């Protein structure tokens, strides 16, 4: 009895399963036919202009920085400053033992005075000899002898004065002064130590801190606009603490770096508060007027594995990939090339779109905003 009951039931279940499978297979249709358009917001590419602003990074450097060394070998007598002091131009930094050099300077001075006195006497004798020769009291040869002696002493005086100048210069080397105002670094010699002439290790390094310069690189495509700008064009530097400094362009290199396609530039900044420290990294901004072209909201631009692109909305309502080049960005707007003015592109919702997919605009196209159109 139980066997007869199960057989019809199993048959019924088998038939239902087959019908369900057939029904499921019959519903397999191409996905595209039932695909719903992706809702997007569009913008139209407009002709306009954006500020031509060079934005890059720079590094602070000193206008002047030198290693101070001794020009003579001598014992260091005194150090007249502390490490890290700000010194003025001409301020005495080091004094070397000057006793020998001072004595030599005195000796050379005395020699000049001695030879000068002898020359005065020789000139007087020559004058008397000329008078006596004219009166026929002495022979002409005596005059020649007196003149030769005076000439020899004149030459000796010139040599003595040269020796005096050399000894005076040598004595001046015992006093080492700051060639310009700046900040001192580490002192590498102490009082009583023997310093060598032109040693590889400097006595101290002096760095000028006001003004300073910031060096940065400019892309070669911006070079024509930079060359056309007025002399001393303004440069803005952004410090790590968020503060901004204003300076002026003072240097532009004479050639383009072939490896990077950039030109070295330098701007000068006042640094009275010493916030611009040599080696500090800063942001740099230089405005060079306005640049005309095609404008598009930056959010409409997608970044692919190889290039940037936009989704162009074709006449049939399908999204088409269009490669673009971004020439400049300013306040959410991009100056681009690669598309024509009037092209409708997807501004919002592009992340949900696939190439060739149908799209539906949520609202009427939005024009690029925040720029001057023409």
From TrEMBL:
Q: Where is this region: Disordered?
A: 350-374
Localization, UniProt: Cell membrane
Q: Which InterPro entries match?
A: MdtA-like_b-barrel (IPR058626), MdtA-like_BSH (IPR058625), RND_pump_MFP (IPR006143)
Q: Which residues form the Multidrug resistance protein MdtA-like beta-barrel domain?
A: 211-289
GO MF terms held by the record: efflux transmembrane transporter activity
What are the boundaries of the signal sequence? Answer: 1-20
Entry's Gene Ontology cellular component terms:
efflux pump complex
Which top-level group of life is the source organism from?
A: Bacteria
Where the record annotates domain Multidrug resistance protein MdtA-like barrel-sandwich hybrid, the positions are 65-206
What family is this?
A: Belongs to the membrane fusion protein (MFP) (TC 8.A.1) family.
Q: Which NCBIfam families match?
A: RND_mfp
State the name under which the record lists this protein: Efflux RND transporter periplasmic adaptor subunit
